[in-house]
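User: I'm new to structure prediction. If I give you an amino acid sequence, what do you actually give back? Let's try with this one:
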Amino acid sequence: MLRLDGFSCGYGPMRAVDQLQLQVSSGSITALLGANGAGKSSTIMCIAGHVEIHGGSIFYDGADIAGLSPMARVAAGIGLVPEGRRLFSSLTVRENLVVGGYCRLGEATAPTIERVLATFPRLGERLHQRAGSLSGGEQQMLAIGRALMSQPKLLLIDELSLGLMPKIIDACYGAIDDLKTKGMAILLVEQSTQRALEVADMVTVLESGRQVWTGTARQARHSTDMIDACLGLKPKVIERGK
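Assistant: Good question. You get back a string of structure tokens that encode the predicted 3D arrangement of the chain. For your 242 residues, that looks like this:
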């Protein structure tokens, strides 16, 4: 569903990620790990169209989308859950969901909202409450729900568990695991390595914008090299999982 070939991105003259090779298949979760400043969020935001690509290709569903606008990428089936949620705090839960389905306004919105509420029943109890008054966990549920309103085939999630209580983290991880079983492709950026490895199929580790480890989640769970890479203790060369 997603393939990055020789992918590089950055901000003006500054290159945040260099020569990344990564792919995400339908019905799978790929975890993108690394310390703060490794380039994880820049990768996610570039795939979504909000950061400049400096080189290489972004193939989504077989087509190079590097030239598409962010809105066109959403319409093509790429959903984004950004770091910090970035909700419309003055709008209600329902209004935020409707905004998330903007590119699908020609279709029935109510059934899509019902599917989101089935995934996160707590949102149904807060449907007419302003998003800014929700707890942090409820806001994260809403951010995921808003992304799902565009009916994505690929979901990009940046820092799923950051600042959340364990019970809410469990609910969010349960939701994305369910989405995976339904065939969705998910690229997950996460600070909590342990939680990411519980649901991921594939793992890639970045350090200072370079890919330093890649392999299956099973390999990662038994790899001291991967842990060292996450902590920034590996040399800047790609290590394949063993």
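You can read the tokens as a compact description of the fold. Here is one thing that stands out. The chain has two domains: 2-77+152-240, 92-151.
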